[in-house]
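Objective 1b. Sequence-to-structure analysis of Mechanosensitive ion channel MscS domain-containing protein.
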Amino acid sequence: MTIKQKHRTYFLIPVSLQLLLLVIYLKIKEEYIQLIICILLVLSFLNFLFARGLFENSENIYERWYIPSIFKYLFITLLYFLCKKIAPNFLLLKSFLYLFIFIALDVIRISLCCTISKNFEDRLSTFYFNDLLKLEFFILLAVIEESKEKEKCKLKLLNYEKNIYSFYEKGKPDPLNVDLCFELWSNPSLSLKANYRLFVEEKLGMHKNNQGTLKDFSNQDDEFSTKNRKNNSEFIRKNELIKCFDIHGSFLFNSIAYLRAEESLDKTTFKENMSEILKERDAFFVSIEKTFRLINRVRLFGYIFHLVFFVSLMILYPSTGTLIFVFLISFCIYLVRPSLGRNLEASFYILFSNPYSVNDRIKYKNEVFIVKDMSFLSTIFQKWCGEICTINNETVSKDLIFNNMRSFSQQWEVSFLVSNKIDIKDFDRLRKIIKNYCASSNAILSVKINLNEIVDSNFYRLVIHVKHLMNFQSPFFMWLNQNNFMKFLLSYLKSLKINYIPIDKEIEEIR
């Protein structure tokens, strides 16, 4: 029997005891009722705490929320019954019907909050964000090596898990010295490898071999020690990272090199890429922080709405006879219904459709925006020029939005006018050269080349569609690959002596 199965078995024992005590309660004498109620209260409370702790890290939303909630409702019911026995005159709720309505509203509130939280959690744990969560292990390892407070950093790495909650709970991302990080990863030390074995390898869950325990390096020669490091190392090599981090070394190299086809990375390119990755890391933390802030607002609004709606039902209950109050409430609802409906529609669009998150890069009405903050009714965007604008969520929901960050890949179009005197053999050679270039690039998924339109009887329109492998919050990596592609394309147009006229955008030759 696994540990999980044992926990589930131990979890069912108190439940069976509760049911048994409830059966006994139906047949028990009245003088023992209070004792039985007290026992049920204690069992319900312990079950609630045990269930919440047991399923805290569970991926099943029903285990994390609904099972503990069942025991919470049982606890509320028993507490209500006990209060009714002890002080019936001071009890606000006069009937079990009110208690049932209260619990039903609470179930609806928790269901909505769980659905919204799960929706945002899934959005923030996909695509490049998932790689950032995994890359954080290696960044924390580098921070340990260069930090003076090693024990504190080790404790932070020990408590870190690959999820957005752990990423947020450890606080604002630690700064990283890029130069020292390059030296560390270009010549990995044995202490770095030992910390990886001790803190990281088991959490990533992908092992090259399962040795069970950490190997003792204390009496061995450190082949990667500081004394033997090459001070003139100018490259981070993929094979060295694989030696240090096993199969995860390949992931680390592809992340910091942005899927380059080469097996080594020079210091200049590393510093450029790493600075952008650290910006992505900081932006990811801000995105999680503002998303959690929005979720907390949803929970607060849920509690307020739950209380107000429940009290309103109690007041409007037919036995109270307050017909004037009923008329006033109905009239107010009729007046605010149109605006209330629009506001609810705008809020539900953000909370349930979740078209974007903070720091996403979107295209809205042919303009590119960065999402800076979100609320129930409006969203704050930033244009590339730095201009800040606020748009109502209802307005946004009426138009089409392209979310580059959430797309599997982004397509980029290059369009030229070439002379109709072009030799078809030269065009075929150009097509093969571009295909070979894109096939050898790990950053490009596919390319399509079309030459099937005549313009002004003297030109052909040459259209090239390049599809990237992935998207990023920062446009740096997109710009870098597009820049390299244009440099390559222009050089071969020149070598093949193909005359061209750019029509979509001005393209200057890169020297």
